[in-house]
Write a structure and sequence with these properties.
The complex is a heterodimer of chains A (353) and B (273).
Chain A: H1 2-11, H2 17-45, H3 50-55, H4 61-70, H5 77-89, H6 103-138, H7 143-157, H8 160-174, H9 186-189, H10 199-205, H11 209-246, H12 249-256, H13 261-289, H14 293-298, H15 304-313, H16 317-345, H17 347-352
Chain B: E1 4-15, E2 18-30, E3 34-38, H1 45-52, E4 61-63, E5 66-69, E6 72-73, H2 79-85, E7 90-93, H3 97-100, H4 107-116, H5 124-133, H6 139-144, H7 152-164, E8 170-174, H8 182-199, E9 202-207, H9 210-216, E10 219-224, E11 227-233, H10 243-251
Parallel strand pairs in B: 3-9, 3-10, 7-8, 8-9
Antiparallel strand pairs in B: 1-2, 1-4, 1-5, 5-6, 10-11
Helix pairs in contact in B: 4-7, 5-7, 7-8
The chains are: A mainly alpha (353), B alpha/beta (273).
Chain lengths: 353, 273
């Protein structure tokens, strides 16, 4: 009988989290191992000789052989992988052939720029995309729905570098409303200390409001563009999830109970639509964190995308692999986060995991 | 004075092949009594129930010459009028609690919500009393439970509690036991019947189960293809005149009479007129 069943579920409610958490961590560990295995083997398979990267292609044979052994390339491949694993766990991703610095410090330098831009982008995308999608779903087939559709389609299909250039031309060159390329004007660059690498945070925490305004001016356009891009996607998905929920029987139940339409939409339906929406937003965010190469190029934004593209062009394998690892980790992390949010949002999942 | 009067109710859905009328001129009066509506699926009985609550799913349209609830004209009722009527004065129990309860809200929150939007206070005590009234043994637990944590029978009792907690004058029960196990059906029905009887509410009981309807209702409307083909007292079901009703009656299995071949329903295009 349901009564007895329920009693058992309640009593075990808290400890149930422990095996669930253990399972999640186990999955993450296996996925991370797989990720490192793949980056390691990509590194071994590409036709770039790591020895030549270190010593150049004019070094004598004896130097080549010595470096070959120094790099551990004479060892069996599984030992090399274990060494690689050990290094990764110590935060050592090797040195960049290009900048002659540890990859990890390079990434630590460029990643905050991408993080800041992506966060602004996803915030704009979510704050506008979700309400627009809900709005379109409620007005399905009406003019408002079509307008949202067209706005979304433009965001989806217009090349972002083109929008970026036009935006710069209009708002920067003509109207002087915003800052130009880069993250901050040189005149402000040294007026605050770099603590988090996120300039919006750094300037605000140090009370450097003139610098803060300048940083805002610089991030406004690329942030808005990335926001527009993710808004287009998020609003489409919100619309379809909402349409699905609004057709469910429990919505009729709520109407029968006399619940106001506004509450039906924003509480009953959206609360259910939020479950799949969380994944969509998390993956969009991951996509932005990967570094929007085109945006970063147009706006000379010193982020991960630009760094990765540069390294690829110069065949800087360590940097490429390091970035791949970081991006993979971001995806795994955000997936994990959305899984955790799932269990918070959907009581049915709580039971299953 | 009658609680609900319906005259020439029509529900139409636009389709690619032109408008399709699923309810075609239904007329009846309802007092504080129990009225059964029977018919096969697609006969328009559910759409009749929904049209009374103003919940014809878009793009469908409901029209009527008269649609009055307690003297209030429902035909052009504003959203505000509907909100003041739904929940507090008329409500509906739906078929399957698996779909009709919001999966991410606890039963308690959904119950209290029903109370809050019907003008009453959000009193937990009232909600708990209602859960007890539908014979839930451990109301505290069910109050805190999510719908998926309840069995079908439990869920439907919670649904009934939610719809009756506001003490409405009219309850539409749209196949309230069709999704339940046969063993639970009778139990849930008895609870529903007892509550409706005690409170002297009007009940519209929609079902495809002729025998069930005749044992729980005072009067029965038999619907076929969007029309009421016969209206009779539940007691007189055996004296039904219309060939469709007689056909339905013949299809009921009898324990002491092994009919072979099994009877089939005959249909006559003339009934559609």
């Amino acid at each position: 009988m349901a009564d007895a069943d329920l009693g058992e579920g309640r009593r075990r409610a808290l400890p149930e989290w422990v095996p669930a958490l253990a399972r999640i961590l186990g999955t993450v560990a296996v996925t991370m191992l797989g990720l490192m295995l793949i980056t390691f083997f990509i590194g071994r398979v590409v036709p770039v000789d790591p020895v030549i990267l270190v010593i150049g292609d004019r070094a004598p044979k004896s130097v080549y052989d010595r470096t070959f052994i120094e790099l551990g390339l004479d060892k069996p491949i599984w030992q090399q992988f274990l060494i690689y694993l050990g290094q990764v766990f110590q935060g050592d991703l090797g040195d960049s052939f290009l900048t002659k610095r540890p990859i990890i410090s390079d990434i630590a330098r460029v990643f905050p720029a991408t993080l800041e831009l992506a966060t602004v982008g996803i915030l704009i995308g979510t704050l506008f995309g979700v309400p627009l999608g809900v709005f379109a779903a409620v007005r399905q087939g009406k003019l408002a729905d079509q307008v949202v559709r067209v706005v979304g389609l433009i965001g989806y299909s217009a090349p972002i570098f083109w929008l970026g250039l036009l935006g710069l031309l209009l708002f920067y060159a003509r109207l002087h409303w915003i800052g130009g390329p880069g993250r901050v004007d040189i005149s402000f660059e040294y007026s605050f200390t770099n603590r988090t690498g996120l300039m919006l945070l750094d300037t605000a925490m140090q009370g450097e409001w003139a610098a803060f305004r300048n940083v805002v001016g610089h991030i406004a356009l690329p942030g808005a563009l990335l926001g527009y891009l993710s808004m287009a996607y998020i609003s489409r998905m919100s619309r379809s999830f909402m349409l699905n929920e609004l057709g469910q029987e429990y919505i009729t139940t709520a109407r029968v109970k006399g619940v106001p339409e506004r509450r039906i939409i924003w509480v009953h339906a959206l609360r259910n639509a939020a479950v799949p929406l969380v994944t969509v937003i998390a993956l969009s965010y991951a996509g932005l964190l990967e570094g929007a190469v085109l945006t970063e190029t147009v706006f000379s934004w010193p982020g991960l995308g630009q760094y990765l593209t540069n390294s690829l062009q110069k065949a800087d394998m360590n940097a490429v692999l390091g970035c791949t690892l970081v991006i993979g980790t971001i995806y795994i992390g955000l997936n994990l986060l959305s899984d955790l949010l799932y269990t918070l949002l959907d009581p049915r999942v709580r039971r299953r995991t | 004075m009658s609680l609900l009067s319906v005259e020439n109710l029509r529900v139409t859905f636009p389709t690619r092949q032109g408008p399709s009328e699923v309810v075609r001129g239904v007329t009846f009066e309802l007092g504080r009594e129990r009225l059964g509506i029977v018919g096969e699926s697609g006969s328009g009985k559910s759409q009749t129930g929904r049209a009374i609550l103003g919940l014809t799913p878009p793009p469908g349209k409901a029209t009527a010459d008269r649609l009055e609830f307690d003297g209030i004209d429902l035909r052009n009722a504003s959203a505000r009028t509907w909100r003041s009527l739904r929940g507090s004065r008329m409500s509906m129990v739906m078929q399957d609690p698996k779909y009709s309860l919001n999966p991410v809200m606890t039963i308690g929150r959904q119950l209290i919500e029903a109370l809050r939007y019907s003008g009453g206070g959000a009193a937990k005590a009232e909600a708990m009393a209602m859960l007890e009234a539908v014979q839930i043994r451990d109301p505290e637990r069910v109050f805190r439970a999510y719908p998926h944590e309840l069995s079908g029978g439990m869920g439907q009792r919670a649904m009934i509690a939610m719809m009756l907690v506001t003490k409405p004058d009219l309850l539409i029960a749209d196949e309230p036991t069709s999704a339940l196990d046969v063993t639970v059906q009778v139990e849930v029905l008895r609870i529903l019947d007892g509550l409706v009887r005690d409170r002297g509410m009007g009940l519209i009981f929609i079902s495809h189960d002729l025998r069930l309807v005749s044992s729980f209702c005072d009067r029965v409307l038999v619907m076929y293809a969007g029309r009421v083909v016969e209206e009779l007292d539940a007691r007189d079901l055996s004296k039904a005149q219309h060939p469709y009703t007689r056909g339905l009656m013949n299809c009921l299995p009898k324990i002491d009479d092994d009919q072979r071949p099994l009877p089939v329903l005959e249909r006559d295009a003339a009934w559609l007129e």
